[in-house]
């Protein structure tokens, strides 16, 4: 049974008010598709990335072949030789269909537009952005007003993709932000890469691109990694880094942005082992998201149909998406991470375009064979992951002073603990400060001596802090403190000298 839908407006408001996420350049009116992380958001996103790195690169997992998993890391540049993007196909084929509105001057992804209209020939049609409830409602109201009907039930109607309309139907289509029909242009291809120039001259010879993905830096460095380390197939190369896509219509908060961060693994295998490694990585990655707090019915694993497969994955071991039901996609899901068998497409492309061909093949001493390894690619978005954690954690509770609390897994929580003196006198602040100084050596903790204890708990609830330790009069006599649990609001006493070890154990659990 699906969880009760949450309000994205309320989540966004909390993110801004408590310092999780801000609109970039907000004091100048912002810039569409770019977001800044505040103090709490920075810690949350860093916890996600650190957990990913710890559990991937420093993993003690055993793979499907019975051997320990071996993954190393790289950190590649954002700007690379533009021939990298020619080889990967991004220069020629990294495009989205774009539609402009001549009336409103707005721009849309053609494949994101849906059209509502009566079934009758020559009827007026109304476009809206898919999964945007407000726009769909406006389109419905406009259609009913035009058709002079009270409800859609009284009108034979249908919803279709904008891309399925005939030229004649497009002349009768009203854009999402327009009043007159026929203002939407024909779809045309739009390359998503940001262009820049390297060097003093701005001419065709100096054109470069901000990387649209982190994967190609890994592929371009495959030989360097093999030659400089003791890695042997099967092994992986991992990278966390920024990527940039000039999205036609960035939307849904940080879900679709123009600047974002990826967490990617390219795992190199012998072609004969593609199916077993694909299945292993698919299941491992789904279980990982569950382990950090997305264990409910808002998470699903979906295998791609054949007509969805990317060009590099045709006839491969498979491709699947780990998807999360965000408030703005409900009841549907949005992609959180993809796990794909990329075959040997990328290594072959770079070998061909760099002129290395057979020299770039991997020599497998154990098999006495030279070949291009196949690749299993688990590719996740750090920003989407952070957003999913925020959405999942947001929990309403009228019984609390704050009315809401953030139910983060302790490992993900931006602030691990709050330390409070019950009153700001009688020697309690000095004891609490010593406890705070001890805990902050290993974790992000906050010390707060002011306001009522209820208001301090409320502040920590909104930040998602799982535990609060209160120093009171009994602490001075028996050296114990009260620990308050965020989710249950239950309280217990533990010895003050055991707090640090206790907190470590709770975070690791």
How would you characterize this protein structure?
The protein has 15 helices and 27 strands. It has a 7-stranded mixed sheet with strand order 3-13-14-20-17-16-15. The protein has a 5-stranded mixed sheet with strand order 24-23-25-26-27, with helices on both faces. It has a 4-stranded mixed sheet with strand order 8-6-7-9. The protein is 29% helix and 26% strand. The protein is an alpha+beta fold. The longest helix has 18 residues, at 39-56. The two termini are 27 Å apart. The chain has 3 domains: 8-94 and 195-392, BirA Bifunctional Protein, domain 2 (2-Layer Sandwich); 96-190, no CATH class; 401-508, 3-Layer(aba) Sandwich (Rossmann fold), CATH 3.40.50.800. Helix 12 links the parallel strand 23 (417-421) and strand 24 (445-447).
Number of helices: 15
CATH superfamily of the largest domain: Bira Bifunctional Protein, Domain 2
Principal-axis shape equals globular
Number of strands: 27
User: What fraction of the residues are assigned to beta strands by DSSP?
Assistant: 25-35%
User: How many separate domains make up the residues?
Assistant: 3
Task: Trace the largest sheet across and list its strands.
Answer: 3-13-14-20-17-16-15
Gyration radius, to the nearest Å? 27 Å
- CATH T-level topology of the largest domain: BirA Bifunctional Protein, domain 2
Mean pLDDT: 93
Looking at the overall shape, the CATH architecture of the largest domain is 2-Layer Sandwich
What assembly state would you assign to the polypeptide chains in this entry?
single chain
